[in-house]
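Q: Sequence in, structure out?
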Amino acid sequence: MWPSELTGVLLTHRHSDHAGNARWLREKFGVPVFAHRADAEILEGIRPRPVMERGEGSFVAGLLAKVENRWPARVPVDRALDDGDSVGSLEVHWTPGHTEGSVFYRHVHTRALLSGDTLLTAVPPLVYRAGLALPYPTFTGDMARAYESIRAFQSRAACRGHTRDVAYDHLLPGHGRPLWNDARARIVDFLREQGIVAANSRV
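A: Exactly. Output:
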């Protein structure tokens, strides 16, 4: 992409490794910033930012938590998003848990799901996996809610009669390699392995 082609900055969540350059892009190229309302209020300083605890993870994970606590992303949000909104060909699906305002963006035409840090194929900073995973609890505000958000979205994706068509084939995570073509089946298997859905569930 050339700078002249940039029309906006869509944030999947507020953490600095994803939102840290948003202010610079907004000021340099004059483009709007989009984020879910719950994270937008923190990015703009309207609500206080939750402090990351050291918790589980590697030594480097602890250092990254310190960086996030000391230098959080700050940026004016031009449009605060809600669940069900659209930005161009991207649908907004609220997936709270990793942060209060984490989202999936589903690209309607390609049936690709941009998952940010709600769902990964590699756990940063040093542990890389071949399969799906959630970030360490150090980086995730509410693990139970994060799993429930994924389960709820997957349930909608499996329901053909649902009022919102959220079918998808591909997963583009915030960390790790994309999953092409079989993402939905892989996520169902992941939820079963984690005990989030029953082994015989048709989700």
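The first helix runs from residue 16 to 19.
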